[in-house]
Fold this sequence. Notes:
The protein has a five-stranded parallel sheet with strand order 2-3-1-4-5, sandwiched between helices. The protein has one domain (4-168): P-loop containing nucleotide triphosphate hydrolases (Rossmann fold), CATH 3.40.50.300. 53% of the residues lie in helices and 13% in strands. The two termini are 17 Å apart. It is built from eight helices and five strands, in the order βαβαααβαβααβα. By secondary structure, it is α/β, with parallel strands linked by helices. It has helices spanning 15-26, 33-41, 45-52, 54-68, 89-96, 106-113, 127-145, 157-168, and strands spanning 4-8, 29-32, 75-78, 98-103, 148-151.
Amino acid sequence: MEDIIILIGFMGSGKSSVGRVLARKLGYKLVDSDKYIEKQEGKSINDIFKEYGEQSFRDMETEFLKSLLTSDEKIILSTGGGMPCHNNNAVLLKEIGFSVYLAASPSVIYERVKYDTGRPLLKVDDKLGKITSLLAERENYYKESADRVIDTDNLGVNEIADEIIRLLKGEAN
């Protein structure tokens, strides 16, 4: 089984929730890249975006990924939604471990995040429109970064975690 299992996908696709369950089931350490960067910087993602801009945040993500290249821990990595789309991170993700794209439709994502105020890219009036356009921009990066894709629209967190475990064991299609 892979030492590092990476969950990629758009905000609201279930990366954090699935990561918690998967870490528990496999006995791996859960690392959320956004939470890691917040802790390192002593600031929220919103504040990092405001103070330093998106590109600085993306550079922080890349440096964090590079640090995992030499890790010998068993980790479930829940990535930020934009991580695979910047600084050639898709290549780094492939080098680090086994990555799974948790795919979700714009309408399902909207329902999951519509009341969440901690997402700087959704500080707009038309959240569904923003989700739809951003997802369209990012989807190819997600697919390029992923070893496998799971459609999460009609699955619960435990079902997704169990499917990932089957993939890792070679039992799923």
